[in-house]
Design a protein that fits this description.
By secondary structure, this protein is mainly α. The protein has two helices and two strands. 64% of the residues lie in helices and 6% in strands. The chain is rod-shaped, with a radius of gyration of 33 Å.
């Protein structure tokens, strides 16, 4: 059988801090004052889920960085191509000016 774990090891039962007589958190919401217990299995599952989400987030960050780098390379290549096309256009306009005169 799973032994319950407490969020606060000094308390073994589910108890609200407000009913325990603490008045230091006067502006706190009721959820901030309540202690809960979970089983060891639930605790381990939560830890595994947290690690999985951290791993997924790290992979997503790497993908996003790779996509941003690819976008930067593409933008630079397009700017270079645009500069070449502008130069070609200017050369064609110069030829037209020479033919008209």
């Amino acid at each position: 059988m799973d032994a319950p774990l407490t969020a606060n090891p000094s308390q073994q039962t589910t108890q609200s801090a407000a009913t325990a007589g603490t008045t230091s958190a006067a502006g706190a919401t009721p959820f901030e004052l309540e202690y809960i217990t979970i089983t060891r299995r639930e605790y381990i599952e939560l830890q595994c889920q947290a690690r999985q989400f951290q791993s997924l987030h790290a992979r997503a960050v790497k993908r996003m960085q790779a996509m941003q780098a690819e976008q930067a390379r593409t933008v630079e290549a397009l700017r270079a191509q645009q500069a070449l096309l502008r130069a070609e256009l200017e050369q064609a306009r110069a030829q037209l000016r020479g033919l008209r005169q």
